[in-house]
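FAQ: What does the model actually see?

It sees only this:
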Amino acid sequence: MAESNRILGMTGSFGYIGKRLLQRLRNDDVFRKIICLDILQPKEALPEKFEAHHCDIRERERLYAVLKDGGVDTLIHLAFIANPTRDPGFEYDVDVNGTKNVLDACRRLKIKKLVVASSDCAYGFFEGTPDYLPETAPVRSTPGFPYSENKAAIEKLLAAFTAETPECTVVILRPCIVMGPNANNTTSKSMKDPVIIGVRGYDPIMQFVHEDDAAEAFYLAAVKDVQGIFNLAADGGLRYSALAKVLGKPMISLPVGLIYPLVEMLYRLRIVPFGKAQLDYIRYPLSMDVQKIGRVMGFQPKYTTRETLLTLLNKP
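And it is asked to produce this:
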């Protein structure tokens, strides 16, 4: 087999999903070289065809130079702030302004393919949302939830870029919560608490995707002849109450009039890392139809939502 001349660039290479994707790429024979960009350093030696470059995506010219010097023709953009930081301005700068710099580099370098991590949060969390939204459902962020607001803003940038730059094939993945034995985020920590807290009167569907399945989906998005938007989840998910049973933990549902001011107070006291707007995630239903990614991309997850939750707890 002739050696491929394709060169992959990846922002956020040493973050949570990036590290899982790097493991997948160790067995790759599509890309001749892989350019890893991150403000983090790799914790272990990389194979010969991998190059690690310290790069903050907020530094437009540095980002452009690394991609140019590397000869990148395919780019996976994973550099985002996933966990709340109490600094929404910083999160916006990295997520939205950083993405603007990525798109600028793609235009200038005539990148052939761009794969971007969006989120189910781009759909927002609202009363009355139908179950299992298709990719054609409108993007609308939850006010006061920076991650949701930023993902919606990024998708608007991507829509404009796609229309203006047809020579670059764009794939947008909207993953649900990514989980697994290496997860270390707000949601994974809450799942390890002795009690699962809910909002009284609400029992939304919760979808998860295993970290290695998520990595496989991003890999397929980069190597397959596909474009467009894809929801990403393991399956139809579980109701929140069923999730508590899978985890083997009691669930306490607090009334709306209590839980929202309580969480806001705890946030102001710096006891919890998120404010009241994020409670909409466990109050209002938001589930995605995931038929398209299987049909078009051939994605077949190895783990169900239930199995993904159990791997978080290291259970069989």
